[in-house]
Amino acid sequence: MPAGVVIVGGGLAGLSAAVRLTSEGFNVTIFEKRPYWGGRVSSFPDPVTGWEIDNGPHLITGAYECTRQFLQTIGSASKIDFQPHLQTVYFDPEKGKASLRSVSLPGNLSLMAGLLKFRFLRLKDKLGILKALQRLGRLNESPELDFFTADAWLIRQKQTTAARRYFWDVLCLAALNAPPGLVSFLQFFRVLKKSFGAEKEKARLGFANAGFQDVFAGPAEAFLRKRGAGLYKKETVLNLEIQNNRAFALQLKGRKLSDFDALVLAVPPHALEKMIPKNFIQQLTVNRIRFHPIVSVHLYLKTELFPEKFLAFIGGTCQWIFNMNAIRSSKYWEGIWYSVVISGAEEEAKLPKDTIVSQIFSDFQKIQPGWKPSDVLHIRVIKELSATAPGSPGAEAGRPSQKTAFKNIFLAGGWTRTGLPDTIESAVLSGELAAKEVMAQS
Length: 442
Ligand SMILES: Cc1cc2nc3c(=O)[nH]c(=O)nc-3n(C[C@H](O)[C@H](O)[C@H](O)COP(=O)(O)OP(=O)(O)OC[C@H]3O[C@@H](n4cnc5c(N)ncnc54)[C@H](O)[C@@H]3O)c2cc1C
Known about the structure:
Layout: E1 5-8, H1 12-23, E2 28-31, E3 43-45, E4 52-54, E5 60-61, H2 65-74, E6 80-82, E7 87-92, E8 96-101, H3 109-116, H4 123-138, H5 150-156, H6 161-176, H7 185-195, E9 205-208, H8 212-226, E10 230-232, E11 237-243, E12 246-252, E13 255-257, E14 262-265, H9 269-275, E15 292-301, E16 310-313, E17 320-323, H10 324-327, E18 336-342, H11 353-367, E19 376-388, E20 409-411, H12 424-441
Parallel strand pairs: 1-2, 1-14, 2-10, 7-16, 14-20
Antiparallel strand pairs: 3-4, 5-9, 6-9, 7-8, 11-12, 12-13, 15-18, 15-19, 16-17, 17-18
This protein binds flavin-adenine dinucleotide.
C-alpha cells in the first residue's frame, strides 16, 4: 500500500477518488485551489439574501448509479428527491403548457405510452420518435458512432420539426449542454441508452433539496476529515516534477512536496496542461477538449410565476426554469426563488448581464401576460464559461483514461474517458476508476 496518495482538485472527481481511497485505508491528501470544495458543483451564500445559492441548478437522473452510491457513502442520499416517474412540464408561448409524463407500464413502454399522450406532438411526430427509439435500442456502441453528429442521426431518422423542437433538441441540450449539431452521436446515444432502456426508474429526474455545499462538498469533507485525510483549500498546484517515468515532486506556492507514492490529477485539461512539464505533455494524450458555457440566473420574485418544480421553456432565452421554493420545500428570504438555466450559452455568455436579464423578463411576460419587472426583488447572474465538455464529433479518442504513461500518475475528471458524457456521474465514476488504478498498482 502506498504511504500516501495526493489528489489535485477537489471537484467531485477528486472527492470521489478521495472517499474511495480513504475507505480502503489509504493515506490521502487533497489540494484544491479555490476556497471551497465541489468545483463545478458548488454553492455559496448570496450576500443579499443570505441563502445558499448553487453555481447553477444541476439535475441528476435515476441512471446516475455511481453518484447515488457516493451520496449513500457520505451520508447525503436523502438530499436528492427523485420524481416517482419521469415528468417534464413544457411551456410554449404559442401553445401554453403540456406535460410529458411516463406512465406505469413495464420498461420503456412507460415512456412510449406517455409520449402518445403528449399534447404538443401529432401522431406522426410521436410514431417517428418511437421508431427512432426502437432503432436506438437495437444499436450497439461502437467507435464509429463518434464520427457523426446527433443531428445527422436525427435527420437520417426523418424526425419531424415538432419532434425535434419538443423532444430531441430539448433532451440533447439538457443532457449534453449543446444542440444536436455540435455533439457526437456517441454521447447522445449513451445518454438515451442509459436513461430510456428497460428500467424506467433510470429516466426519473432527481433534484437537490439543499444547496450543493450541503449535498456534496460538506458531507464529503466531513467523511474525509473523520478518516484523517489532509484537506487543503486555497492551495494551487503549480507544476509537477517527473523523473524515471514517475512524478516525484509537486510545486505549490512557497513549498515543494515529494513524500507521496501516487498522484491523482483531478483537474480540467487546461489546468493539467499548465502543471505538466512541456516535454511530457504529449505522453498524457490530453487533446484539446472543448468546454461549453452555461448561464444561470437566480431571481427572487414577489409573486408566483408558476407552481410546478420546473418548466422546459420552448423558443425563448430561458430553457429551464426551476422553482427553487418548490424544489427545496421551503420559503427563501422574502421572495419566491426561480433559477433560470441557459445551456449551450455560447452567445448569451458574451452578452452583458442586463441584456440577458431583459430577455428573461420578456420570457416571463409570455408565461404570465401582465407580469412586470417591478415584481423582482433581487437578481444574481452566474456565467460558467467552462461548464461541461459535451463531446464534439471525434473527441472521444482524445479523452485519456485514468491510467497514464507514468507509473504513479492517474487522471480523474468528468471529461476523462469514462464511457459517459462530462456530467456529475462521469466525474464520480472517474474518481472511482482512478482509485481502482491506484489500488491495483500498490
Ligand atoms: C452550471 C452548470 C450546470 C451543470 N449541470 C449539470 C447537470 O444538470 N447534470 C450533470 O450531471 N452535470 C452538470 N454539470 C456538469 C458537472 O458539474 C461536471 O461535469 C462535474 O462537476 C465535473 O467535476 P470534476 O471534478 O471533473 O471537475 P471540476 O468540478 O472542474 O473540478 C476540478 C477542480 O480542480 C481544481 N483545480 C484546478 N486547477 C487546480 C490546481 N492547479 N491546483 C489545485 N486545484 C485545481 C478546480 O478549482 C476544481 O475545483 C453542470 C456544470 C455547470 C458548471
